[in-house]
Amino acid sequence: xxxxxxxxxxxxxxxxxxxxxxxxxxxxxxxxxxxxxxxxxxxxxxx
Length: 47
Description:
Layout lengths: L1 E3 L7 H13 L7 E3 L13
Parallel strand pairs: 1-2
């Protein structure tokens, strides 16, 4: 899961709680925060 910490459309905390709840149920979930990013305002770069 990806989330910008400046997202004004989708609140950060409920998304983080959802990711944590999935992890507790043994789903393979990664929650990554994009500093300074708003909703849909990030670019994925493969290294």
